[in-house]
From TrEMBL:
Residues 63-103 form the Nascent polypeptide-associated complex subunit alpha-like UBA domain. It comes from Amborella trichopoda. This is Nascent polypeptide-associated complex subunit alpha-like UBA domain-containing protein. One of its GO terms (cellular component) is NatA complex. Coiled coil: none annotated. Pfam families: UBA_HYPK.
């Protein structure tokens, strides 16, 4: 009887050890799945941001501006012409609004 009892205890210990091992592997698989889902979500978000930025740049490029306004803003406020042009485009070509924005 004593041998059978020892074998039974040994089998129980082995079973518990195996359960712990399989639980650990399952947890790692779930964590890996979560990481993959998070990475996919981040990639989709980054792509959406990129597309939104491209659309915004297209909208700004379509705004008609007066080159003389760019020169005046750049010279009077001592700015780079690219900054003056961008600000003017962001304010839909309104030189007064662009200057007010830059002076804030």
């Amino acid at each position: 009887m004593e041998v059978v009892e020892e074998d039974s205890k040994d089998l129980q210990q082995q079973s518990k050890a195996l359960d712990k091992l399989t639980d650990h592997v399952e947890d790692r698989q779930l964590n890996s799945l979560r990481v993959q889902e998070a990475m996919a979500s981040i990639a989709a978000s980054a792509e959406a941001d990129w597309n939104a930025m491209k659309m915004r740049e297209k909208e700004l490029a379509a705004v008609k501006i007066n080159p003389a306004d760019v020169d005046i803003i750049a010279n009077e406020l001592e700015l780079d012409k690219k900054v003056a042009e961008r600000t003017l485009r962001e304010h839909k070509g309104d030189a007064v609004a662009a200057i007010r924005f830059l002076l804030r």
